[in-house]
Input
Amino acid sequence: MTSSLGGYSIRRFTPERSMVGKLLARDSVVRRMDWILTAAAIALSAVGSLLVWSATRGRTSINHGDPQYFLIRHLMNLAIGIGLAVGTIAVGHRRVRGVIPILYGVSILLLLAVLSPLGSTVNGAHSWIVIGGGFSLQPSEFAKITIVLGMAMILSGRVDAGDQMHPDNRTVLQSLGLAIVPMGVILLMPDLGSTMVIVVTLLGVLLSSGASNRWVFGLLTVGAAGAVAVWQLHLLSKYQIDRFAAFANPALDPSGVGYNTAQARIAIGSGGLLGKGLFHGGQTTGQFVPEQQTDFVFTVAGEELGFVGAGLIIVLVGIILWRACRISRQATDLYGTIITAGIVAWFAFQSFENIGMTLGIMPVAGIPLPFVSYGGSSMFAVWIGVGLLQSVRIQRPVSA
Amino acid sequence: MSNIPETGRTQRVTIRLIILQILVVSLLLTLGGRLWYLQIRNGQQYTQQAANNHIQEVVDPATRGQILDARGVPLADNQTRLVVTVNRTDIMKMKDGGKAVLRRLGGVLGMKYQDVADKVRLCDAKTPRPCWNGSPYQPIPITDTATTQQALQIMERREDFPGIAAQPTAVRRYAGPDGSNTAQALGYLSPVTDDEIQASMKNGQPTLQRSDQVGRSGLEHTYDSQLRGKAGIIRYEVDNRGRVIGDAGDTPAVPGDSIVTSIDSRVQAITEQQLAAAMKDARNTYDNVTHENYKADSGAAVVMDVHTGRVIAMASAPTYDPNEWVGGISAKDYAALTGKDSDYPLLNRAIQGQSAPGSTFKVISTSAAVNAGYDINGHYSCPASMSIGGQVFKNFEGEQAGDISLAHALEISCDTVFYGLSYDQWLKDGGNNPKNPADWFYKTAHQFGLGAKTGIDLPSELSGRVPDRQWKQAEYDAMKKSWCAQAASGKHDYATDIAREDCTDGNRMRAGDSVNYAIGQGDTLVTPIQMARIYSAISNGGTLYQPAIGKAIVSPDGKHVEQIPPKPVGKLPDSPQTIHYIDDALAGVVTSGTAAWKFGGWPQDKITLHAKTGTAEVYGKQTTSWFDTYSKDYAIVMTISQGGTGSGGSGQAVRNIYSALYGVQSNGSIDQKKALLPAPQQRLPKFGPDGLVQQADLTTPDPKAFAYPGNASGGPTDATPVVALAPERNEKLLLGRRYHA
Output
């Protein structure tokens, strides 16, 4: 650092480096970041912005007559998301560890607020808090992060301290107890999609924590048994089952979910190899696919960008996940390993479920496509996730 | 923190992280595979579905081709009318479903809101008419009789009438040039039915559109496919609520071809007027048989070009205004045209009116006798009556003429000559025990084209009937039960007596049948077009043509002309000598025979007319009048049901038509300038480069130009007294189809 006083300067002897120099130094935070992951995430967000724009240009009923209404908001969300990621990197996942209980508490409060009169219902799921000014918050998105962080904290605590080889049963139970509260609230909303994502994330967390196989398979068994019980005990009405199964057979619910899936499939299928060109998809301009800027944004890519463009999205998601897996394996402690593995499970399943439902191989659930879908909460959450991944990456051994 | 030693990550965690990575990769591969399956493997199918999803098609109807007369005068064309339409998709987008707009529209058009709203609603099983059964994207016509002022009000206040349009649109018009009507020959249009759309499927696409009109009868039906053209399709891209968001490529409409016909609108007008006048005259004439005036309930007239078989005029009475069908016929009008109490004006009696030909049949009997070997120059007895098979067959009024030639028998229409010939032939054929009968009289009728459709280019032609042995057998097989049932009733009235007779041997050709048949009475049925064709053939030396009205099909731009050539389909079975002989005899009918009293002062030396009168008897009705004539150019046949005698009923009318054609004045002189058509029009009308026909001037003939004797002057006036049998039949001779008299 240099200072100039009265026309001359005193240069310190110690080789202080400039800010830029610091950032570019071999061991600097910037150099240690995973730039391939960052590039893939930014590319995916850029494609997503175009798709959101295309999907909302003509939707005069919701875009207030401004074709760029959603694009501008989407880019703002993206900027905030990237800012949150940078902030997360600056704080670092280790320092966060100390405030996890607070974050957890806040997220539970927010979730409860949704159930209170503050919450509002969108598309049948009572999972939003309207802030005003056209913005709203979906606490379940942030709950995913706090659950991962909270469980990682509990599960890794005694292992990283060297007390245990693997988390013992008590520790696992404690971590499950931590997860079950927000899950229960989310299920009450009811937000089935987010619950599914959290269950899979939880599996990823348990898997990477080294918890005994009994817990992993036990959890799988409980999940399967629960599904069978729901089916056998007729806890769901036929309508609900049809709705669920309509992804495979749209005729079961032709005006509801079946319509969505059928139209989504037509949109994607009609794209062919190269697509109809951005802004030129008849299904998209004709607004045949509901929720196209959020949950069904992938259909815009399928129709307008074709197999090449939609395939590129899957490849970019693949790059992000591949790099995240690498970071997880490089993590210096179990805490970092669990966080990153949880994020991998979260991103992977949410992407798979979202794209899978538009392709008709997964049941329809209202969850966004990470980095691509319109929606602030989701965008913030996934970029915080990126920040956590980078934070773990930065603290890897130099040799790795 | 790199100096902190790695926490000993266990093998288990490492393996699990690898498992996690494998799971992630397999999920993504699944997505990629599914994406390939949808987009590449089944892409075609979804592309099709997407197109169906967001492309809506609106039909742009093609302008129907014109039907032109021989000179290019349009008999049927298209009139530009101001049609007010409602675009349903625009209306439905409004908050109140367009109520306010439709109410305003009703106000401008002077209609009730409900009437407008009813026309705009879509048809389904529960909706009563009126309703719209076309595509909801098609502009729905509200009225086609908007005034210019109404149209201006709508178009100038666009903001008050969103989705409403007032546009000039082509609507069919039957112009009736020169005062002609031509209703039955032209036919009419009415909206296409669902069944027809289904039937028109070609390659999975219907060739008929919901908005189409289809030719239902007459030329409109026969040449429907040529006249219709091809409807265009305007394709709109629509969104999920049916709102139009763009164009998706249009297929322009192709206008229909025009048909040039052989009809001359002036001759048509004269023919119609003369038929009507003849019928009116007959209604003022007293019938001595039924002791009341003739009813003259229906009639028909045909003017044919003898050298081509083309129809120059075709009239059928009673008639109607074909424009009644335009823009949809009202239920009341429809009932008046087709109901039980109507006089069936839609029937084209020139091709669908069947009746016994009466004495006009005798040319066929003459031909049959000559071909059977009877001497053409021989003399045959014409007694007052003949007794055949125990029954007495009388001559017309019991008159006799001694031994006369066949020619004279035709002239004076002596029945007994033909009775004798036919009876003799019947005996030769084996009488009541036929052995390989030659049946010359029946065979000849078939050879003259009777008992079969002529094949004229009009729909629903009837074939008439030749009551030969096959027909008698078929009739007997079909009717035996009911005849015998009636006979068993034991009654002794006329009908039961016949039934009794028929029950025993109704399939047998009896002497009386053959005798009766030879003078065109009994079960024989003919149509006017068949007789016109036969007399044309005698005029042209023996060629039977397939009658036709269509002369050429002309493309909309006038550049492509497809001629419809005359079609000779047969020859009369007569030698040139026989034809010449009959030809002479028929000229004698005009100069000194049964028609002479109507043709006094006719310039026969310049324009030789030939004629045969006929008075056919119908059981329970007044006689059918037949008058079959020809010159070297034209054959004219006129028939009037319950119209009296051939010459009395139609003589003057037919003479007037010839006068108009050749320009014959009332004093017998010929004024070429006033001749409408001294020879049939052979050339086609000229078409300009724009496809418009170069029209001839219209001339409306004055019906008063022709002397028309009323009831008072019913008898011969200035005609030379004839040696012929009296033309008026006032004796009940051969009542009904039987010969019990």
Notes: Chain B has a mean pLDDT of 83. The longest strand of chain B covers residues 74-86. Chain B has three domains: 56-261, 265-338+526-705, 360-518.
